[in-house]
Amino acid sequence: MKKLFSLTMIVALLAVFVPVVSAAPPAQAQEYIVTAGDWLSKIADKYLGNPQAWPAVMQATNQKSLEDSSFAKIANADLIEPGWKLWVPSTEEAEAFLATYDPNKPEMLYATGAGGQLVVGSWWTAGGEAEGLNGMFRIYREKYPDVEVVNATIAGGAGTNFKAINKTRLIGGDPGDTFQLHAGLEVEGYSPEQYLEPVDDIYASEGLEEAFPADLLTLLEYKGHYWGVPVNIHRSNVLWYNKALFEANGLTPPATFEEFTTVAEALKAAGITPFVLGTNEGWEAGHIFEDVLAGTLGAEKYNGLWTGDTPWTDPGVTEALENFKMMISYANEDHPAQTWSTAGEFLIAGTGGMMIMGDWTDGWFTSKGFTGYGWAPPPGTQGIFVALSDSFSLPKEAPNKENARNWLKVCGSLEGQEAFNPQKGSICARTDCDPALFNAYLQSAMVDWSQDAIVASVAHGAAAYESWATDYKDVLTLFVASGDVAGTQAALQQACVDAGICQ
Ligand code: GAL
After folding, report:
1. What is residue 241's predicted lDDT score, i.e. its pLDDT?
2. How far apart are CA 325 and CA 482, in angstroms?
3. Helical segments of 181-278, H only
4. pTM
5. For a pocket test of ligand 1, which of 390, 424, 427 has the largest count of ligand atoms closer than 8 A to its C-beta?
6. Taken in order 286, 154, 417, 116, is the CA torsion positive or negative?
7. Which residues pair with 376 in a beta bridge?
8. pLDDT tens digit sequence for 334-361
9. What percent of the residues of the chain are helix, what percent strand, and what percent coil, each to the nearest 5?
10. pLDDT digits (tens, 9 = 90+) for 205-261
11. Whose CA is closest to atom 8 on ligand 1?
């Protein structure tokens, strides 16, 4: 008899018509006790036949822990500990969850408490900043124990990755409850009148206009409203150095660009990388250069760059680019592979001498237990404080608006700011924090903040619209590779023209 179907044809037909099922038979929901060497995807694979079903295990466990506190609360999928009790959902439940799961919405992995959730978006994952944020969460949880706080961070310094994802969610009408927003012109990029809610009433009820300095209030106001509550003041222009190396080589931190060359040559002769930086995330060169611009032009001319009063064709900008080029000539060659914090490791290890980075570095050093660092204003910026401030905002479509409003109150409060800033490596936005809670570096920043000329950071959203700031950062990242002073200056001028500020 002629065979109508070959075996291979039958297998092929089955593959088309029979839905793919996991190799394991469907599992019932069950408890699981974590043992050494376990990780979530391994458990998902074992019980649900699919390692990628780990989010379903995390979500089910977190939800279960609300009813029964003997179950673990999983805050970080990568950190589960032996002895923890998990709840593995049934195959059917897991499939139902995974069908709607969106990895850009970390809140889906967490439980929803009786008081709902509070989804806080930020990019604070590094040492120091993560702890600072937790300090504010602790206070919030004490006040609102029924609310599940979701730490919806997306790693990447200066918001490199966070901002784009956040914007997509905001525009899609699907935001978290509150997110990190720099004080200043950055807010324009979020079309606040369309997507955010003014928080003027919180300023009024919490007395925030009396709590923050006038200059900060001016920076925060956009189109007649406040769109965020600030938690801190950061300083962009800090030169960090390894104290032991400087002492061993009889060096003091350079106050001028000439001195920078002398110090760098001495460090080089001693076999140390004089200047460490990372340019991996595409914002760091722009950050350092804003400090070089301020140090070369002075406060007034630096400010003029963002208002059109100082042309980008100014010889001072040429000089700043030459200064920056000189500094880069002393840098670690692998900077494209490094970030600000991995570059900082060289300073800790004593293989790198100096680094220019914002004062979140102070929080990071502290979190690493490193105390051998010194600080000084980078060349030319004595008496100048390049400032930025982080605030939290209120999306119009925030799903848990009341929770978000309460969060903003914690952000603006004295106890919130005192819990956050000493660990974050920033000073309070409020003027009444207790200096005794802060380390020596931060105490010095407080003094400088009160007496220096304050200018706005462009790399961190204060001085210019987001689109201009992005162009500026891109141009500087290219400069680090090309060293083309004339071409870079022309591109910076063009960015100013495109921003509608220069002719
Ligand atoms: C800034 C932010 C700081 C810190 C830094 C490094 O934009 O304002 O708080 O997080 O990025 O990521």
Report:
1. 98
2. 10
3. 192-195, 200-206, 208-211, 214-220, 243-248, 257-269
4. 0.93
5. 390
6. positive
7. 239
8. 999 999 999 999 999 999 999 999 999 9
9. 50, 15, 35
10. 999 999 999 999 999 999 999 999 999 999 999 999 999 999 999 999 999 999 999
11. 390
